[in-house]
Write a structure and sequence with these properties.
about 270 residues, alpha+beta, five-stranded mixed β-sheet, elongated
Length: about 270
């Protein structure tokens, strides 16, 4: 019995002596776990902050690109509209038979382009129809100084592009190619598909490119929007012709195919 009591006392003293060490070890473990949790929380918070900044930066860049597009349209359309309305008013006053068709084309263009620019992407055939109406309006005003043709291969008429790309290319050809040329000229829109490659050209035989070539806001905006949508799979080039110039867009894959509007493909040569 004495031996048992001695053993119990020994164990009690050992437990008492060991308690500080165990508490210290437990504290170290708790602090280590807490510290690891804090580090992980900080890492997660940093990752979330980085992702939020990337999203905000991308959203800001997209908004800036869209704002530049809308600014471009705001700069072009008043000039275009005022000249068209002035011609329309003159023809109405003179009882000219051209007033009715011009008003119909202008109404159709405004309705179509407003709906078109409200979308992120549109079928190529849909935007080609807006470009056709735009060119018809200008042709009514410029007469024999402007001819045009639009040719879309059926295979690529339903391919989608960021809204406003084709219309800006056509406006650029008229503004910088046909208008400065004394005799005017011809604008040709061509779209062809070879496999998954979409090739879109807007050609004119007008004044040609200046030296050095200075690219305006419109085409620079188009290039930026294409690269944001397709990355390195899309290119936009401004090429010299003899005479004139060609704006060329190529998209390698990645373009959505949709059903084009009825009657939106084909060719028209005034």
């Amino acid at each position: 019995a004495l031996g048992g009591e001695t053993l119990m006392q020994t164990l009690r003293w050992a437990a008492i002596e060991a308690t500080p060490a165990l508490l210290a070890l437990l504290l170290v473990v708790v602090l280590s776990v807490w510290g690891a949790a804090q580090v992980r929380q900080w890492q997660v918070q940093r990752e979330l902050t980085h992702l939020r900044l990337v999203q905000e930066r991308d959203a800001a860049a997209r908004q800036a690109a869209e704002s530049r597009l809308h600014l471009l349209q705001a700069q072009i359309q008043p000039h275009f509209l005022f000249n068209t309305l002035a011609a329309l008013q003159h023809w109405v006053d003179q009882g000219d038979s051209r007033a009715g068709p011009l008003l119909a084309d202008l109404t159709g263009f405004l309705r179509g382009s407003t709906a078109l620019l409200a979308q992120a992407e549109v079928p190529l055939a849909q935007e080609a129809e807006s470009a056709r109406q735009y060119l018809r309006i200008l042709q009514a005003r410029l007469g024999a100084r402007l001819a045009f043709a639009i040719e879309l291969e059926p295979a690529c008429a339903g391919r989608s592009l960021p809204a406003g790309i084709l219309l800006t290319m056509v406006e650029n050809a008229v503004e910088h190619g046909i208008t400065p040329a004394l005799q005017g000229g011809r604008v040709e829109v061509r779209a062809a598909c070879r496999g998954d490659v979409l090739r879109l050209e807007v050609r004119d035989n007008g004044a040609g490119l200046s030296e050095p070539v200075v690219e305006g806001l419109g085409l620079a905006n188009c290039r930026e929007r294409l690269q944001r949508r397709y990355g390195t799979s899309a290119t936009l080039q401004l090429l010299p012709l003899q005479p004139g110039a060609c704006a060329l867009v190529e998209v390698h894959g990645g373009a959505t195919t949709v059903t084009p509007p009825s009657g939106a493909t084909g060719t028209r040569t005034p």
